[in-house]
Every structure is written in C-alpha cells, then in structure tokens.
C-alpha cells in the first residue's frame, strides 16, 4: 500500500484473539504467557520460521531438521546433528502438546516456558543446534529481513515495535507455532469417545497400563501420558529408571547425569523428565540419550527393573532408582500387550495436518 507521498505504509495489524483451541472433553486449554498471546497470524509466522533454514548459523538447518512432522516432531536418530556439525548431547524430544508441559528439556526444571527453553537450541555462545551467536546474529537477522514476506508479517504481528524483526520476536512466533502443535486424535482417543475399537491385545495392554502390576500411571498418568502436564498436579517430578550404574554407586555417564547437573544433589543422579507416550511408536530411539532402539526394548527394561550392560553397569542395582520400577511385574506376553496398546497412541492426523506442514516444501 502506498501513501500520497509514494512511500509504502505499514501493513494493518494482524487480528488478535482469533485463536481457537480444538480440544477433547477433559482437556483444558494450556497456559499461555500474557506477553505472548496466541493468534493465527503469529502461528503462521512461527510455522514459517520453524521450517526456515535461514534461521541457523550455517543457513542449512531448521528447527524441523531435528523435529520433522512425520516423526511427531521428534528425531529418528539418537543424537541430532547440529549446525556446527556436532551431535547434540541428548535425544530430541517430540513437540506435540508441548504447550501443556511444566518444564522443558530432559532434566532442567528451571525451564518452564517454551520461550525460555528456546534460548538453548536457538542462541548460545557455544552453539550446536541452530548455531546462532553474538557474532553471526546480525547476519541471520539480515537474511530474514531481506525477505519481503518477513518484513510484512513481522510488522503485522508485532505492530507496536520499532524493530519488529528481532530475535525476541522470532522466539515468540516459534513458541506460538509449537504451542499450536496439538495431538489428541489417536485411535485410543477415538476408542475413548466411542468412535473406534481396540483389539484384544490392545485392550489387555490398556488394562495392564492402568494396573498396579504395570505401574505405568506412576509416571504417565496424565491425558498426555506423562506426569508434567499443566493442570494435573502441582509437582515437577523427574525419575531414575535404572538405565546406568557406571560406578556401582548409581553413576550416569557425564554430562548426561540428569537433574543433578542443575541441583548438585546426589539423589538427582539419573533423574530425567518422563516423556509423553503419545505417538511413542513414531519417536524411536528412546531415553534421554537415544540409547534404546525399540519400543519393545524400552518396555523390557522397565519390566526387568533396569538395564544391565557391559559399559553402563547394572542399572537394576542403581541406589537412586525410583522404587516404582521394582514393583513392575510383567511377563513377556504382557509386555507385548503393553506395546500393542502404546501403538494405539499414534495420531496420524498430526503427521498429515497441512496446518503444521513445511510451507517451503513445494520449492524443495
């Protein structure tokens, strides 16, 4: 739009308050920061940034490189390859329903919003993932600022700011997109709503999942199948399931020693956040370091009360292990039934939803 003086006028502000959550009965809308309200325009801007490889130090990696849609926004390798050519220290977690999480990353209980968490992969002095730092930040912003679409959309979404295209607003837009990645339409959800059936094995697995025998609800009892879902309890639990015992005293390999890295408390050794089990059949490999290749192996480790390995020690004897792990009593057949049930948590609509898809796909 041109003014009478021939200069381009700013675009009209994007509508606010036009976002609508589509949620099943029993799931309340997630908490949203007051300074970053949801809007459709901001969600669309965040989606574009999420898939844009120009938003990295080397211009070759996007957020979606480690969180592709067809893997429920997780990665298919143990440790993702960052923009610096190095591997990340921990397995990339799926982003579906991240809006409801009480904490982010595997073991940092101080990161309680998506905006705060994003500082890690997006901007660090010694970056690995997206590789943006003080030295190359102006170059990255210039790349994005040269795109007329970004010039227009940042001005629409953040109309009150003199420099709308900033790192802070990039973070707000991507966080808005990630909050909008919602997954509550699996076959299990349709069964709960009376719109689908489950097989005999799946029903046996569901019964075991809910039983004291399986102990699954201890760490995966919320509607998101974790124990850190907003609106479901006030605690912020982390768990040691006996994956390692490197020194015979409960040690985990450095630097992946769990919440201990932040708290310094010995009892926090090996304690990590229980991930959501939604779409778990799509998110292999498993655990904080991606060291468990299959869903069957993950269930077996729980049923055997920990993992025994030549290098990792006998995790079954880890003194810091959660007591609930030793109460699990599952035969091989029962483990197979639980795996069958867990596969019903796959949400195929999530992996095919065009609202969440790569907007650059047609060009690539």
TrEMBL record:
PROSITE patterns: CYTC
Annotated compartments: Periplasm
Every Cytochrome c domain range: 200-346
GO molecular function: cytochrome-c peroxidase activity; electron transfer activity; heme binding; metal ion binding
Co-factor: note: Binds 2 heme groups.
Cofactor: heme
PTM comment, free text: Binds 2 heme groups per subunit.
Residues annotated for heme c 1 binding in this entry: 63, 66-67
Region spans: Disordered: 1-22
Record: residues binding heme c 2: 216, 219-220
Keyword terms of this UniProt record: Heme, Iron, Metal-binding, Oxidoreductase, Periplasm, Signal
The keyword Endoplasmic reticulum is annotated on this UniProt entry: no
GO cellular component, one term: periplasmic space
Record Gene3D superfamilies: Cytochrome c-like domain
UniProt superkingdom: Bacteria
Pfam families, per database record: CCP_MauG
NCBIfam families assigned: MXAN_0977_Heme2
Name listed for the protein in its UniProt record: Di-heme enzyme
Taxonomy of the source species: Bacteria, Pseudomonadati, Pseudomonadota, Betaproteobacteria, Neisseriales
């Amino acid at each position: 739009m041109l003014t009478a003086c021939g200069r381009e006028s700013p675009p009209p502000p994007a509508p606010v308050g036009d976002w609508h959550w589509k949620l099943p009965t029993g799931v309340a809308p997630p908490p949203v920061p007051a300074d970053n309200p949801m809007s459709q325009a901001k969600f669309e801007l965040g989606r574009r940034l999420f898939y844009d490889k120009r938003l990295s130090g080397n211009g070759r990696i996007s957020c979606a490189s480690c969180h592709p849609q067809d893997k429920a926004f997780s990665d298919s390798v143990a440790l993702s390859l960052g923009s610096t050519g190095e591997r990340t220290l921990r397995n990339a977690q799926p982003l579906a329903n991240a809006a409801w999480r009480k904490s982010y990353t595997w073991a940092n209980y101080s990161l309680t919003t998506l905006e705060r968490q994003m500082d890690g992969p997006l901007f660090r002095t010694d970056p690995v993932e997206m590789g943006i730092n003080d030295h190359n930040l102006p170059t990255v912003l210039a790349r994005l600022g040269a795109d007329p679409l970004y010039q227009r959309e940042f001005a629409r979404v953040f109309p009150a700011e003199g420099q709308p295209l900033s790192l802070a607003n990039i973070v707000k837009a991507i966080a808005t997109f990630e909050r909008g990645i919602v997954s509550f339409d699996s076959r299990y959800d349709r069964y709960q709503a009376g719109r689908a059936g489950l097989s005999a094995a799946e029903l046996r697995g569901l019964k075991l999942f809910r039983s004291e025998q399986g102990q699954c609800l201890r760490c995966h009892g919320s509607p998101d199948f974790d124990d850190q879902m907003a609106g479901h309890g006030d605690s912020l639990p982390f768990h040691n399931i006996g994956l390692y015992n490197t020194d015979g005293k409960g040690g985990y390999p450095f630097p992946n020693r769990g919440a201990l890295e932040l708290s310094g408390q010995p009892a926090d050794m090996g304690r990590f956040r229980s991930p959501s089990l939604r779409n778990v059949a799509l998110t292999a490999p498993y655990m904080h370091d991606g060291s468990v290749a299959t869903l069957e192996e993950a269930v077996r480790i729980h049923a055997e009360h920990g993992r025994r390995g030549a290098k990792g020690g006998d995790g079954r004897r880890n003194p810091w292990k959660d007591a609930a792990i030793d109460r699990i009593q599952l035969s091989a057949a029962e483990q197979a039934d639980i795996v069958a049930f867990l596969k019903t948590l796959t949400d195929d609509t999530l992996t095919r939803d065009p609202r969440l898809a790569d907007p650059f796909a047609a060009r690539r």
